[in-house]
From TrEMBL:
Subunit (UniProt): Homodimer.
PANTHER family: FERRIC UPTAKE REGULATION PROTEIN, ZINC UPTAKE REGULATION PROTEIN
Protein name according to UniProt: Ferric uptake regulation protein
GO BP annotations, alphabetical order: negative regulation of DNA-templated transcription; regulation of secondary metabolite biosynthetic process
Taxonomy of the source species: Bacteria, Pseudomonadati, Pseudomonadota, Alphaproteobacteria, Rhodobacterales
Alphabetical keyword list: Cytoplasm, DNA-binding, Iron, Metal-binding, Repressor, Transcription, Transcription regulation, Zinc
Keyword field contains Transcription: yes
First and last residue of the signal peptide: none
Domain of life of the source: Bacteria
Amino acid sequence: MTETADDMVMARATGWLAQGGLRPTRQRLALASLLVGDGADRHVTAESLYAASISGEEKVSLATVYNTLRAFCEAGIMQEVVVDGSKSYFDTRMDDHPHFYWEDDGRLTDAPADQLEITRLPDAPEGAEIARVDVVIRLRRS
């Protein structure tokens, strides 16, 4: 039996949810398929994922998209990148890497990690430890 493209998308989505220990509900599968179905990494906002989901068979509300993205982050299969303190992007790529934020069109893209050098971080306050360092490099067209 030949595996169809839809079968491959669903297998990726199901496997991704399983990595986070998440039950594959219809809505989670629909959103996971959009996020990882083709195997590429994604940077999405809740609004852009909602817009992409409108054309799908499984209808989800914007509130469900927000809640599901938060669940994906809590499960450790996606990370949130906050830009401007009010704009959140959700990234399916989980390794530590910097980002470019394109101010002109509000896009977030991966920056080359091998070109970033952080030689020293400040000491964490007593009773705290550094969990992660987010680097967002803001760009505008010249």
